[in-house]
């Protein structure tokens, strides 16, 4: 033992090193546990054999033990992958349908903006995503294989984008909702402008929370006005309307039977309507259902995606930082 160092001091130093290493190892283990819970996906549980309900909670990702996602908002799907706009992370997360994290695509901020804030995403192809970045008031076209080469949608004149809020790719055309002028601008898959619709609506559209195209109708949630409209995709004329005042409507999707699902953010539920939008036939998230004790309650449902193969509804909840997944029976009460 070197002179001047007591045995007690030496043992204290060794103990300090051991404690520090143990804390670091524990932190690393917990971090890996949370990461693996996301990277490996989560179990999604179907209806039990004795269940007679129309809705059951399948699960959520990340799991409750893992760190939350950074403000998950818009959802789209393509090539067996889920693309989730993570606003607070400034990125698009790419996941399998059971929540395994495949990659994270960072959206670089616009010039003059300190951060990006992606709130919606539409999949054009495996090589082309279209992202709404509200921090930069722009639409960004991203190649997942080369995100550094992302570029804004080059629209001019009446097709210029002032305050984009939602995007939808439907029947080979890209629809962009612009709160700056209350219009929906339509482009082809290469970004060439085609037409602007919904300009003459009274009252005008204010803030579009989501759009969903199905069966010749472009469903639009006019969030600030608390209404959901079915528009003609060509002219923007109202051809359907759901006669209900919503408490901040957001995500819209339809299932194989044509039923319309609408996320009502401030109510914390998803309402289900028949294919015409005339009658409400069910709700998701507002009552004790099978699996309710595993975290079925939503705080603020935002975007929706329908998994037709598994008959499941995916719901993003930015306040909880998770994607909630629900089993839905083909027949509703």
What does the secondary structure layout of this molecule look like, with pairings?
Elements: H1 7-39, E1 55-61, E2 72-78, E3 81-86, E4 91-95, E5 101-106, E6 118-125, E7 128-133, E8 138-142, E9 151-152, E10 164-170, E11 173-178, E12 183-188, E13 193-197, E14 208-214, E15 217-222, E16 227-231, E17 238-242, E18 249-254, E19 260-264, E20 269-273, E21 280-284, E22 304-307, E23 312-317, E24 322-328
Antiparallel strand pairs: 1-24, 2-3, 3-4, 4-5, 6-7, 7-8, 8-9, 10-11, 11-12, 12-13, 14-15, 15-16, 16-17, 18-19, 19-20, 20-21, 22-23, 23-24
Could you explain the architecture of this structure?
The protein is mainly β and 333 residues long. It has a domain at 70-152: Beta Barrel (Thrombin, subunit H), CATH 2.40.10. It has one helix at 7-39; strands spanning 55-61, 72-78, 81-86, 91-95, 101-106, 118-125, 128-133, 138-142, 151-152, 164-170, 173-178, 183-188, 193-197, 208-214, 217-222, 227-231, 238-242, 249-254, 260-264, 269-273, 280-284, 304-307, 312-317, 322-328. The strands form six sheets. Strands 1-24-23-22 form a four-stranded antiparallel beta sheet, with no helix packed on it. Strands 2-3-4-5 form a four-stranded antiparallel beta sheet, with no helix packed on it. Strand 6 and strand 7 form a beta hairpin. The chain starts with 6 loop residues before the first helix and ends in a 5-residue tail after the last strand.
